[in-house]
What does this fold into?
Amino acid sequence: MKHLFLGLLAAAAVFTSCNSSKPEYQTITTPTGTWELVWDDEFDYTGLPDSTKWSYDTDGNASGWGNNEAQFYTSGRKENAWVADGMLTITALKEAMGGKQYTSARLRTKGKGDWLYGRFEIRAKLPTGKGTWPAIWMLPTDWAYGGWPSSGEIDIMENVGYDPDTIVGSAHTELYNHVMGTQKNARVAYPDCYTAFHVYALEWEADEYRLYVDDNHYFTFKNEKSGYKAWPFDKPFHLLFNLAIGGNWGGARGVDDSLLPHKFLVDYVRVYQKKDAAGK
It folds into this structure.
């Protein structure tokens, strides 16, 4: 499925193969440079998510994750996170568990995939319906500058079911965050984001990071070079995928229980780092 999908990048981008034993996406060239694959999960297996690459994040279940979310995130449970037919499926169910009325999954690469800078590509199809809140995002691995938001957060993709056509990309730092109402973000319309797959991408470099949908560049967050309060993005971060139900944003207009279960489908995850001028 993935190896036949060659329309990821815009016409200006060129795919090249390092050699016949490596996949065609091993090295890619985009308008911003040449990138070498360093980590991926193509989900070409059946079972629970690969434990060498993914773990389950359940630490915030009791507190509602700081967002008053309504789901209980499970661990190692195929009903909520399962790989089959070439993709990862995160499923939110209407069922009571852990004092919550819904179950779902939140996966992360912490300690198994942590990076400073790179290009991150995730091909996914989103759920929709009042109350859904899927996200593809990154958090700091070591929290070097302190707790949230001081050490930063990169939101590659967020979507809420009551605003189903809208993809939101954001930056959160000590100076710029939604609690203070100073967050930096952008929105882009994709009316078929819940009926078709799209590639959600981040290009993160020392001077800025850029967000894309299908190589449509729609948001840039720049390094002001004024210190960590504005730019904490000089430390390793890891990836997270989750499907929340309800919460301060996702549940702002309620949850329609008649629409559950919801499924968040991920076709692949690819992480690249930039080659230098010498091609290394």
Notes: The chain has one domain: 42-271.
